[in-house]
Amino acid sequence: MASITPIKKRRIRIGTRATNLAARQAEILAGAIINGNLAKKEDIEIIKIKSSGDIITSSIGPYDGKSLFTKEIDQALVDNKIDIAAHSVKDLESYLLDGIDLLGVLKRMDPRDALITNEKIKSIDELPQDCLIGTASPRRSAILRSMRNDVNIIEFRGNFETRIRKLQDKEVDATLLAMAGIQRLNFSDCNILPFETDAMIPAAGQGAIGMVARTNDEEVVNMIQELNHIESYVCICAERKVLESFGGSCFQPIAAFANFDDDGKININSMISNDDGTLHYNVKEFAQRDTVMDIAGDIGRRLLEYYDKSLKRTVNS
After folding, report:
1. 91 part of the active site
2. Which of 54, 74, 83, 91 is catalytic?
3. What is the pLDDT of residues 263-314, one digit of tens each?
4. Does the pLDDT of residue 61 top 80, yes or no?
């Protein structure tokens, strides 16, 4: 493979949320830049920025739920205070600020969700009757309730460490976390029970570190093109296309997951649900690379149609 010419001598400023997991993701991105001979270690700076979602301690309910974990970082990008925003793609809205875009992703890690418990269990069926589960994700909550309608779910906010501490303090019987975050932090202190993606369809972009940058910063755009994992990016763009009709907020009980099969076809699995999981609609389709965005857009329209006909009246009722 031909050697890559390093970016011109300039400091590369990576912006990230000020949490341990987000900082670890920025470190992974910095490592990829260094290993790709795109910049030297001493020329990379990681800048931690507090997001609204990290500051709010009450329920997110009173807020609009959009861009809570990304808007301050993206604004820093627009203001030329950073050069690349390292995001968990699942936190990104469908529409970003003018002048910036999701230009690539690193290779996606495990996209699955996992049930985390203090006690060792091998199935969700082994959870106690009427147990208490903590999660702030309507998607996870709705899918769990469709599996076990007896469980009680409370809003469970906080970063990775905060949620684990609450679990270990027995505030709840279980919580849910993304497998990618578990693996990035090398966490193994509790029982970890992953759900296969057909059982709990992941959030769009889950498991991927996204690289958002100014579209007119040619040097950084070229760097991201070198780092971009094409297969992951194709799948994630399809997932985001499914959510586009809804505005892409992760605070809706909606999911989309795309992956390549052994024959090179792209599987797209999606769902939308009411809050308690009693009403839900699943759409699964196959696509080729040249048709995947059209098919993903059609899936999104079908989900929106179901929402308008069957779910809209149930929201906040």
Report:
1. yes
2. 91
3. 999 999 999 999 999 999 999 999 999 999 999 999 999 999 999 999 987 6
4. no
Could you tell me if residue 110 is left (phi over 0), alpha (psi between -120 and 50 degrees) or otherwise beta? beta
Q: Give CA–CA dist 294/298, Å, rounded.
A: 6
Q: What is 1-108+205-228's CATH number?
A: 3.40.190.10
Helix (H) or strand (E) holding 259: strand 254-260
Instruction: Please name the fold of domain 113-194.
Output: D-Maltodextrin-Binding Protein; domain 2 (3.40.190)
Chain segment 144-193, per-residue pLDDT in tens: 999 999 999 999 888 899 999 999 999 999 999 999 999 999 999 999 99
What three-state secondary structure class fits 317?
Answer: coil
CATH number of this structure's domain 230-312, picked from the four choices 3.40.50.300, 3.30.70.1350, 3.40.50.720, 3.30.160.40? 3.30.160.40
SS3 183: helix
Residue-wise pLDDT tens digits, 63-116: 345 576 789 999 999 999 999 999 999 989 889 999 999 999 999 999 999 999
Scan for tokens 């906040």, then name that residue: 316
DSSP sequence for 132-149 = EEE-S-HHHHHHHHHH-T
CB 94 within 8 A of CB 150: no
